[in-house]
Specification:
Oligomer: single chain
Radius of gyration: 17 Å
Number of strands: 3
Order of helices and strands: EHHHEHHHE
Helix content: 55-70%
Number of domains: 1
Distance between the termini: 10 Å
Number of helices: 6
Largest sheet: 3 strands, antiparallel
Strand order of the largest sheet: 1-3-2
Structural class: mainly alpha
């Protein structure tokens, strides 16, 4: 067991973003149907924006609080844990979700921080009291 490195994190994020994009497409279908097939203008539709945020939030919080792993994290051998090795609570997962937005905001600096952190922790790891751990498959390192 070791804390996940930046490249493994980004690989899992890429995989998860494809899944989230598919969910957002599905969540958009009713809004397009209600508009008679016309595109939805995000800026003009507060309900639509709220639904999109709920879908993204629900995806991550749901996986993190049930198993500590999104599908992308499972593919890359990653597990989200508290510093004591437990699956994060709803509160810790929520804090991590919003702190990750802060980590992305300044051009991803919060993620890049893990390159200099002696424990490979990003800002949102430290803020939420969680860590992303790499569990290699038996026989792989």
């Amino acid at each position: 067991m070791q804390n996940a490195g930046l490249m493994r994190r980004f690989a899992a994020i890429t995989y998860d973003m494809l899944l989230v994009a598919a969910l957002l497409f599905i969540a958009t279908i009713p809004f397009i149907a209600l508009r008679g097939g016309e595109p939805v203008e995000v800026g003009d539709n507060t309900l639509y924006r709220v639904v999109l945020i709920i879908v993204v939030y629900g995806f991550f919080i749901g996986f993190w609080t049930r198993s500590g792993r999104t599908l992308g994290m499972q593919s890359w051998g990653l597990q989200l844990e508290t510093t004591s090795g437990e699956i994060p609570s709803f509160a810790a997962a929520s804090l991590r979700f919003f702190a990750a937005i802060v980590s992305w905001a300044p051009a991803g600096l919060g993620f890049l921080w893990s390159l200099w952190d002696k424990h490979n922790l990003a800002w949102h790891d430290r803020i939420s009291g969680t860590r992303l751990v790499y569990y290699p498959k038996p026989g792989k390192q």
